[in-house]
Amino acid sequence: MEKGRGAAAPLSHDGAAARTSLASPRDYLALLKPRVMSLSIFTALAGMVAAPGPITSWPLALFSLLAIALGAGASGALNMWYDADIDALMTRTKNRPIPAGKVPRPEALVFGGLLALLSVWLLALTSNYLAAGLLAATILFYVIIYSMGLKRSTPQNIVIGGAAGALPPVVGWAAVTGSAPYEAWLLFAIIFIWTPPHFWALALVKSADYDAAGIPMMPNVKGAEHTRLQIWIYSLILIPVAISPFFFDFASWLYLAVAAIGGLAFLHAAFGVWRQGTDKQAWRLFAISIFYLFGLFLALIIEHWGGLHG
């Protein structure tokens, strides 16, 4: 039996309950992981706005953004379909629609699969095949490479799997330009390097949950001390990478100020996790990391929309 799938019986019972109940629209919305989806929408918008040249058709751009949102939601639904067994074992996820018996597992699979196909088709229709291909790659990477492969097999799961969450700004950039130059991949790099310290801070607090589900997160495999050191190392790498758009001339003084001040706050919190290692410090870094990433991409949007760049 595969590790992390030992709670099949309770899940089957939940599935039986779900077949006799009606899910609400809110339950299907929850399948989309709306908080994760909102981050994908926001970073994709930043990629669209930061790309050179004006957006010639905002209606098409908004439909492209909708397609990216649907793709992110499809990834979330398919992830919940596959992970329903381990979700039932963790306090953080046991109330999700499938383990809670609100949405049958097969319905989640069909729902996520149809959304994935719709999102890629819509993006190809409203933008170009490169953007649609990148969106398809994002969905496949998140579901097959991360959810089905990495998550249950290696403590590097969130490091490699973070590529899926880092792709939306590249997709957004490609949607309005038909290309994916190095500037778009710098935005990818920021999110990619940000992801491990962000999620490992949560994993330090929730290590008992991951242990119960048999998920080899870094604290459970390498220990808390090693994880805290890795958080500090990734944080040191992140800050110069996050500042780099200014030196590559597609961000201006506002972005630089946010990246520098936010970076100092991020480093301070990461240093506290490394040296003190308390749950309070880990929660603090987790919260600061969210505001930090939001601030970076908001500054980029404001600069390009407000004419502060170039």
TrEMBL record:
In the Enzyme Commission scheme, what number(s) does this protein have? 2.5.1.141
What pathway, per the record?
Porphyrin-containing compound metabolism; heme O biosynthesis; heme O from protoheme: step 1/1
Q: How does it sit in the membrane?
A: Multi-pass membrane protein
UniProt lists the family membership as follows: Belongs to the UbiA prenyltransferase family. Protoheme IX farnesyltransferase subfamily.
> What protein name does the entry list?
Protoheme IX farnesyltransferase
Q: Which Gene Ontology cellular component annotation is one that this UniProt entry carries?
A: plasma membrane
Report the transmembrane regions from the record. Answer: 36-55, 61-82, 103-123, 129-146, 158-178, 184-208, 229-247, 253-273, 285-302
Organism of derivation: Parvularcula marina
Intracellular or extracellular location(s): Cell membrane
State any further remark.
Carbon 2 of the heme B porphyrin ring is defined according to the Fischer nomenclature.
